[in-house]
C-alpha cells in the first residue's frame, strides 16, 4: 500500500513538474510597466536628429545645470516639445564627470549616463507636450513618474509636483529627486 501511494506521489510530481503551466524559475504573470509612447516623427520633419541628447562636464564640488530643449513634428502634424533641466547641487559627487542626458526616442522618458550614485539628490524638471494622451487611461490616476530598470521594475520617484493635461497632451514633473543615474519616465 505504501509503495502504491509513493509511486502515485512520484508520478504526480513528475507530471506537475513537466507541465507547461508550472514554472518555478520565472513568473509568467509578471507585468511590465506601460510607458507613455512618443508620437512617431514625420518623415518630412526638418530635423535629421533621431535622438536628442546633451552632455556637459560637471565638477562635483561646484555642481551645475544641464538643459535640453528640443522639438519635432509628428506624423499627424503636431509639434512635440521636450524640455528638461537637471540641477546638480554642489558636492553631489566627487571629481569631474561628463554627464549625458538623452531623451528616449520611443517613450516619454530620459536616460542619464554615466551610471552614478549621488551624495545629494539631483533635481529634474521634465516636460513633454504634443503627446496623444487621450487613449492611455490617465483619468484612472495610476500613472506616475518613476525610475525604470532594464528588467522592467519600477520605483516611484519623490517629486515636488507632477502635471498631466490630457487635452493639451502635456506631461510634466517638477523637482523629481534623482539619487542615481538610469532611466526615468512616466509609466503605470
Provide a short characterization of the protein structure.
This protein is mainly beta and 188 residues long. It has one helix at 2-18; strands at 52-59, 64-73, 79-88, 96-103, 109-113, 117-129, 144-148, 154-156, 161-165, 170-180, 183-187.
Instruction: Note the beta-strand portion.
Output: 35-45%
The radius of gyration over CA amounts to 23 Å
Indicate how many domains the architecture comprises: 1
Distance between the termini: 55 Å
Oligomer: single chain
Helix content: under 10%
Structure description:
A 6-stranded antiparallel β-sheet has the order 1-4-5-11-7-8, with no helix packed on it. A 5-stranded antiparallel β-sheet has the order 2-3-6-10-9, with no helix packed on it. The longest helix has 17 residues, at 2-18. With 188 residues, it is mainly β. The protein has 1 helix and 11 strands; from the N terminus they run αβββββββββββ. The model is unreliable at 3-30 (pLDDT under 50). It has one domain (33-187).
Amino acid at each position: 500500500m505504501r509503495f502504491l501511494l509513493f509511486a502515485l506521489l512520484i508520478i504526480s510530481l513528475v507530471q506537475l513538474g513537466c507541465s507547461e503551466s508550472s514554472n518555478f524559475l520565472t513568473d509568467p504573470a509578471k507585468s511590465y510597466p506601460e510607458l507613455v509612447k512618443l508620437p512617431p516623427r514625420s518623415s518630412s520633419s526638418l530635423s535629421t536628429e533621431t535622438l536628442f541628447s546633451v552632455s556637459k562636464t560637471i565638477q562635483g564640488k561646484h555642481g551645475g545645470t544641464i538643459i535640453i530643449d528640443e522639438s519635432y513634428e509628428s506624423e499627424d502634424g503636431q509639434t512635440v516639445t521636450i524640455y528638461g533641466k537637471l540641477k546638480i547641487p554642489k558636492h553631489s559627487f566627487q571629481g569631474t564627470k561628463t554627464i549625458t542626458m538623452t531623451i528616449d526616442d520611443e517613450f516619454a522618458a530620459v536616460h542619464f549616463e554615466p551610471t552614478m550614485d549621488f551624495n545629494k539628490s539631483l533635481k529634474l524638471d521634465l516636460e513633454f507636450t504634443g503627446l496623444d494622451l487621450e487613449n492611455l487611461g490617465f483619468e484612472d490616476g495610476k500613472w506616475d513618474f518613476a525610475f525604470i530598470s532594464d528588467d522592467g521594475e519600477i520605483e516611484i520617484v519623490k517629486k515636488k509636483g507632477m502635471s498631466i493635461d490630457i487635452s493639451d497632451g502635456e506631461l510634466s514633473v517638477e523637482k523629481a529627486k534623482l539619487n542615481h543615474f538610469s532611466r526615468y519616465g512616466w509609466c503605470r
